[in-house]
Amino acid sequence: MNFSVNFLRTNPAVKASAAFRRRGISIRHLAFTFAFSIALLTLYYNYLRHTVVPFPADVIHYPQETPEVWEARALQVKNAFLHAYHGYERFAFPKDELCPVSNGSIDNFNGWGVTAVDSLDTMLMMGLQPEYDRAMSAIHNMNFSLPINTRVPFFETVIRYLGGLLSAYAMTGDDILRTRADQLGTILAPAFNTSSGFPSFSVDTVRGTSNGPKFGGLAEIASYQMEYAYLGKITAKKEHVDRFTAATHNLHNAELRKYGGMYPMHWDLSSGQATDAHLSVGAASDSAHEYTLKQYLMTARQDTANLEMYLRFTSHVLNNLMFISPNRHLLYVTDSNLYRGGIRHTHSFEHLSCFLPGLLALGVHTLPLNHLEDVGLNFTELADDLLPEHKMGYEELASFNLTDLHLWAAEGLAQTCYLTYADQPTGLGPDIISMRSGGLYPEITWMEAMQEWKIKGRRGPPPGVGDKHPWAGDGNNTTDMLDREISIDRRDYYIRDSQYQLRPETVESLYILYRVTGDVKWRHRGWAIFQAIEREAKTPSGYANVKMVDTYHPEQRDVMPSYFLAETLKYLYLLFREEDIVPLDEWVFNTEAHPLPVFEWTKEEKEAYGIP
Ligand code: DMJ
């Protein structure tokens, strides 16, 4: 009893309640005040906050270096390539990839020496004749033999090997490269033995049979059109041409009404229709979207079906998958999926998605986005067979100058890709981050912010586009967990996968943006990334994936993917070269950075192959 009395006397809640009562404040008053505050907060976060916030830019000075400085930087990239390739030759060739920490090797892509084949055109661009000649002697002896029951992954083999052979052929006209490409394209063809004509995951090249699940990821079933089209062109073989025309036909006729005109991630290889509603430009989807524009450009802008697909996919992304982060107003692209009858966004932002800004910039450079009637299209009519909300989205996009809009999207996204590197103590970018959005944080789509920016008189740069400094209060040098959490919170994202995998997508976009805009800031950002690679990823024999980019002195992983030589170093080299040695109007990069030449089908070819 005594205990209860004492408890009531000393309990702070009871004391506070008595004090309130003495002042004439009832529980109802308190409840009302509480509810009113919650309502105000909700209003603030969901409406006022993003209607009153402007989207200011930081003032950042990018020095105008002399051409000699940039050429010297290109030379440093060439030396990095030589370091990596010589390490591969010394410790791994003729196996697929070098293990750059242990000086071992690994056969992870059929064991045909993928690093050598993937590197051919980079060597040609860099003028590395001795290395090229040594690689070519292996290609002369290559017969693609394998033990029975080996599964050859179709997608990776096409983009790395076939793309590498075709690109080197385009640059040299050397017949042996065409012969090897033809042989490879032919032994991979059983992959197409599905009812839909979309390729299966892998091929047993000895038995001539296809393998793999009944369902395929979008990127894997729809990223070979460029390679097979060019292979058909240079071999004059209808069977190769048929592969890419079937893909275009399948994709163009797929039922996309409920997906807003964008291709979802998973497909049934029998019916040729999508099996989920997961919309993404990241892993398992990326290059299929990329090939819509690139196939159109490579075949001299004749293939309107691919142009339509590109415009539908980018329109859906601009309207529905791009968001602005709450504090720093970072522009990013994420995924959506159906969840309990509604649409949910993950707010993940993948390094793999960082190809998108480059693709958008390439579209700006090559397409008459504001005069699509010149290429026989009407922009808003592209949404005629979509749902009314999607049609409205097209009309909103059309209320802007489309060229400006696509370029702003490209610039804002590329800046965020770069900042995910610059924000880290290593200067290297994580593989996946999660943006703060939803819940207490407002979920602001980019187009909502753009409409508001327009209504308010277009003051300052468009949302997410103005220059931004890297995150200074990175919280990494504090052991106080709360400080760290607060800092990360204000940074607007946390890191979900902290590995830097030597991937190319960010520097690829920096390179294309530099060529399209001529703005040196893209070069400076690329230079910062190259220096970080030299500092953190270099090993005595090559370059290695880096484990935790958000820590000081991270460990390295014993992996050097062939795409580091085929793509990452190539794009950095091209970014710093003064001379534009791969003009974007004459060459189109496949998804593994192998440039293929723009070509036109002749009248006879069109008739023979049934190309419209
Ligand atoms: C590369 O092999 C290709 O760019 C592919 O399309 C996806 N990503 C890897 C590198 O990140």
Note the topology.
Elements: H1 2-10, H2 12-22, H3 27-52, H4 67-91, E1 97-99, E2 104-106, H5 114-126, H6 129-141, E3 152-153, H7 154-172, H8 175-187, E4 202-204, E5 209-211, E6 215-217, H9 218-221, H10 225-235, H11 238-253, E7 266-268, H12 286-298, H13 304-321, E8 322-324, E9 331-333, E10 336-339, E11 342-345, E12 348-350, H14 356-366, H15 388-398, H16 402-422, E13 432-435, E14 444-445, H17 446-455, H18 481-491, E15 493-497, H19 505-517, H20 521-536, H21 562-576, E16 587-589, E17 595-597, H22 603-609
Antiparallel strand pairs: 1-2, 3-4, 4-5, 6-7, 8-9, 8-14, 10-11, 12-13, 13-15, 16-17
The protein binds 1-deoxymannojirimycin.
1-deoxymannojirimycin (DMJ) binds near residues 286, 287, 352, 504 and 567.
Pfam families: Glyco_hydro_47 (PF01532)
Cofactor: Ca(2+)
InterPro entries: 6hp_glycosidase-like_sf, Glyco_hydro_47, Glycosyl_Hydrolase_47, Seven-hairpin_glycosidases
CATH topology: Glycosyltransferase
Helix count? Answer: 22
Average the pLDDT over all residues and give the rounded result.
92
Q: Kindly name the structural category.
A: mainly alpha
Q: Tell me the number of strands.
A: 17
How many individual domains?
1
The stretches of 5 or more residues where confidence is low (pLDDT under 50) are 1-5
Q: Tell me what the CATH architecture is.
A: Alpha/alpha barrel
Distance N to C terminus: 94 Å
Q: What is the highest CATH level, the class?
A: Mainly Alpha
Bound molecules: 1-deoxymannojirimycin
- Biggest sheet details: 3 strands, antiparallel
Apparent shape? globular
**Rg, please?**
27 Å
Q: Assign a percent range to the helix content.
A: 40-55%
Order of the strands making up the biggest sheet: 3-4-5
Strand residue content: 5-15%
